[in-house]
Give the backbone structure.
Amino acid sequence: MTTTDSGNREKSAPRGGAAADDNDLGAAGSQLSTAPQEDAPNLPALGAVGWARWFWRQLTSMRVALILLFMLSLAAIPGSLIPQSGQDETRVADFMERHDTLGPVYEKLGLFHVYSSVWFSAIYILLFVSLIGCIVPRTWQFVGQLRGRPPGGPRRLTRLPAYATWRTEAEPEQVREAALKALKKRRFRAHLVGDAVAAEKGYLREAGNLAFHIALIVMLVAFAWGQLYRSEGNKLIVEGGGFANTLTQYDDFKSGNLFTAEDLNPFSFDLKNFRGTYEASGPNKGTPRIYEASIDYAVGADGKEKSTKIEVNKPLEIGDSKIYLVSHGYAPVITVRDGKGKVVFSDAAPLLPLDSNVTSSGAIKITDGYTNAEGQREQLGFQAFFLPTYGGKNTAVLSQFPALLNPVLNLEPYHGDLGIDSGVPQSVYRLEKRKLKAYEDSKGAQVRENLKPGETMTLPGGNGTVTFDGVKEWAGFQVTQQPGSGWALGGAVTAILGLAASLFVQRRRVWVRAVTGPDGVTVVEMAGLGRSESAKVPEELGDLAAVVHDEAPTVAELGSDGDPPASTEAEGGDADRRSPGAAAPTCAAPAARLPAGDAGSDSPRPPAVPSEGAER
């Protein structure tokens, strides 16, 4: 077998044949992806229609989609750094009070309500439209590819990145049948096209790409839906107390712009008791081991009452509402009597914990029903400080352990005007002392006493008594409604799986051609083409070639007298004596191939000669 060098072939190859080969190769690699081809930026045609088409092409391009996604991530940063009116009105008002210049600027720019501002909504909607405009045509194109068949191979398979060839005594039909069977067994979509078998695999790559983009749309819709219809409220309940899911029952409540009171799920529950256990010793002393609230709940006005327990990170789900256990503390039970012995207050007063050992503080307010020793109506206020485990006089005034081992209640009594009747809102855990007077003893010192359960403090001047009756525990619950959270989670999982498929699955095509040569011996050619250069294509082609070769082994090339042929001249002019044998086909790796656009690659290449094997 004799071939000429690449220079002579280039001179002898007609220019029209090179162009035809390029078109042929382009057709073989067509539709390996559904990604749209972005043309060079041109000025739009005159008129409104021309500008509209140009704007739509720019908006639905992948470049603009990435820019909008980056802008959306930047726009969300102020929502994390600046207090938001939908989450904490108090912090927003405090910011406005402390920043006379910056506050009004932020307010005009909508930085106190970022996620409902015009500019954030504009970016959000543009990204949404861009993704839809990109996905819809790609989806139809992908569906068309699934309904179609792999294209036929180019005339010269030698130009493809991965290539193998050998000669066999098997008939071309037998080779094609064996190739078709081997390809289908490896889950290729294969069919006969003329004298070759065309096969394709890796559609999961494009399916994953589309799934990733569709999942982004689902996440955007779920996020918007959740923000518009969400609600979140907190309620502190003392043991024995209850709660009904209405707006007036919440201690604080915030919701999305489209949320209404009718969207609240109808349910109620009572806190039977709270149980907390703690590490008693070691480096983790005082660390909670069990936090659980036992409740009785009912769904609807006539629902059957059920019992359950709510633990940390184990909420109770009713409809699309979730009830979380978020906090815990103590509520000393006190009884206040006036100078005549009349009970004016007897209830548990929840106090807020200050540290991990549940050192607690708060205020107890008596607003109505109290009269002093002179018969005048007054209001009473007590600054309360509670220690679940008091360490004694020689220790710091802090609880030594979170459990009720040695409870002590410290009270500072005041009388006068609590400031509640002025209409100005104030915290129930804070005592406004501007119009209050402290009780003083006979020495002029402010009255302040430590009480243990069962002990009583007497107010000076016959103004009454305060008895510390015991301690109840309270639990803080957060009730949330976040519609669309399940869709958002599903979209996130789908996006991850789709991205993984688009990154690790390769779309590739394989062609197997079997024709009868001039000497009557069948020439088998196999070639592979992937969307991108990868070592997987030639490796896979080599495995396939080995399978087909088992069904159509290499023919021994012997002379007419039974001796090996004299010699063959390779492309460099070097003599290479080949020994007869039946060996596996050779497969060219991409690095050993001429690139598709090389001048010498458009001429026919001689089939690779099998390596030395056993004599026949």
